[in-house]
Amino acid sequence: MDENKMEALFAGVEYDINELKSKEAAVQHVMHEMKSHLVDKFEALVAKQPKKPFLIYDDKIYTYEAIEDMACRVANIARSWGLKTGDCVAIMIQNEPSFVYTFLGLQKLGISVALVNHNLTAHSLIHSVSAVDCKAFIVGSGKDLFEAVTDVLPELGKLPVYIQGVSHQNLPAGMTSFDDLMKDTFPTAFSPSLRSEVTLMDTCCFIYTSGTTGNPKPVYIPHSKTVVLSCIAKVLINHNQDDIMYVVLPLYHSTGMFLGLGAALIAGSCLALRKKFSARHFWADCRKYKVTNIAYIGELLRYLLSQPKSELDGVHNIRAAIGAGLRMDIWNEIKERFKIPRIAEFFGATEGYTGIFGVSERPGALGRLSPLLRRFDPDNKVLVKFDVATATPIRNEKGHCIPVEVGEPGLLISKAPDQLLNKKLYKAPIEETEKKLIRDVFVPGDVYMNYGDSFVLDKEYFVYFHDRLGDTFRWKGENVSTKEVANEIGLLSFIEDASVYGVPIPGHDGKAGMAAITLSPHARLGNKELQELYVHVCKELPFYARPFFLRHIPMQVLTGTFKNKKGDLAKEGYDLDIVKDPLYFIDHENKAYSPLTKVKLVKFMKSKL
């Protein structure tokens, strides 16, 4: 072994020791918490500290016993519907107290809850609700949610739909006021024995991921996993009963759900909720509610950094920020400008069975993947060489995957646990789970999970996020399925095919959508078609999935397996100096896709994206 490899091998041994100690303590904590479900922890906290603030929302404080009162009403309502342990109910509710008490109320009966993205409309909404075979659909308050469900009500068939925030006098046929039911129901408590048959391996909830098949897929989240994920804040930042966690991330996502509600139930702490993220109000809320910890994704902190500097930027009680996706180039700027003592970064996937986290606080680093740590890693996480076009591992002459060298981007894979080999990841055909698995990785018969993201190691084996791969990209904190967008665009009669991919936007994290389209025979792309395309994507796709740019190409380039080849298209993006095909941008002012010019591009980039 040469000197450089020897130096790399032994680099950071002191970090490894700290990592091993912290992970041993984390395992002990998780095993202790694994003795009960989240709803059990909630009920124990109600008995222990009924008057303690549990939620702060819209300047109102909700105690543990107040949420218990509402949750018991929800449980009684669900019981009156004839629902029982093992049934599923879908909820589509924004960040507000009703999300919390509805979720906990259903959990009291051992009912699994499908957490539907409240931005969905049309086909995506119909699919998400239908995919989980739910017995009822509870929709939160708000005009946008009401209209989205009203538009698809005929397609939901005989599924009972209950609306919060509206009385029965203002509802059309086919909908029932949930608020009226709550008023007419007593908060009678249920014995936990009603859910005594529910095990830690049973499904607590479904959280949706975009995946690669064109539609949101409901991921099975067992009770055991909810406890593990809810312990992250305790493990990384010692979130405790005296803390107040500020969450503006949607509770239907695993980050918001488990760094917010889950963390509060593990610690017996208080959760400060805001319905929707506002960069302008963020720090004012933190000061007003005496927030001590904040949950983030990288894009959120980028938006805060883009706000005008203020002498109040560092005036708060925050001691830690915890989340994922904070880029290394702004890490120190965030920490210094906003005076945040501790930033804890981690990586995980909704359907994943492992993650990466560390205790070293190296700017931008998620943790470590050193040779020593891998020896103690039951998941055997490793970065391997991959094909950018297919987001799959490259094999050597023996047919095995190839670990990357230090400094080389690699695809993250980890050993598939036995429980995954005997069940599905998604409430979807088994083929969808199989797509996430890689077989015969290093030896015949071994099975690994493909996380679909690339990372890079430095010479001390600190690991850094590199890029999202394959058929999914992230924009505005949401995962976008390129196939879902392409399928929707392809419904228009004048479009023959579409390749959808993400393109970087200066000053923004993540990637915005772009579609390279080919036209049907004898079709043309005139003003009428460009307006029709704009109306269609605005109606059928959530705001974060609508393509910012269009490229009209004469024909699609396919791979050997007949998949659209998008690597070169993504590299060229919307660069007017390189792309000779017609380019268009989403023009909200004229409600159409309009031809892109350098002048219009500059103006578009300065607009509120």
From TrEMBL:
It catalyses: tetracosanoate + ATP + CoA = tetracosanoyl-CoA + AMP + diphosphate; a very long-chain fatty acid + ATP + CoA = a very long-chain fatty acyl-CoA + AMP + diphosphate. Gene3D superfamilies: N-terminal domain of ligase-like. GO terms for cellular component: endoplasmic reticulum membrane; plasma membrane. InterPro entries: AMP-binding_CS, AMP-dep_synth/lig_dom, ANL_N_sf. The keyword Transmembrane does not apply. Residues 42-357 form the AMP-dependent synthetase/ligase domain. Keywords: Ligase. GO terms for biological process: long-chain fatty acid import into cell. One of its GO terms (molecular function) is long-chain fatty acid transmembrane transporter activity. Coiled coil: none annotated. It comes from the Eukaryota. Belongs to the ATP-dependent AMP-binding enzyme family. This is Long-chain-fatty-acid--CoA ligase.
